[in-house]
Amino acid sequence: MDTIELIELIREFQQSVKEVVIEFYNVYGEADLLTACRSNKIIPRKGKLNSKVYKYAFHGIGLYAKTKGKEVDFDFGPDNRTDGFDAWRLNAYLESQKVYKGLWSYPDLQIGLAKLASEGIIWKYPDASNYYFSEK
What we know:
Layout: H1 3-28, H2 33-38, E1 46-47, E2 53-59, E3 62-67, E4 70-75, H3 87-95, H4 106-118, E5 122-124, E6 131-133
């Protein structure tokens, strides 16, 4: 796996997450989905959203969603960020799609992310599991 392929995968994952978040916003009009589910009880904890999000489930500080041909699982980060990623989530995303299944292993993703981090392309908040792209 080269750096460019990994960055493209991350961007695709982030776009898929963004599409899910937009669908929730379109249905509920809530920008803070986690609060709308946990505290305000506006969004049910699990269910089917619409014809684009077939199945979803809030968990801990995250959200799992199944859409046409793929699944995304992401955590809400500081300031309600949804652009975070890690090797586990990227691997689950890959494994949910026939075109990517078995293409890269979880250890490959860990090594690739560590390389991007060492090059300053991605970073983590202290005590966090998710990476984010640097502003460079």
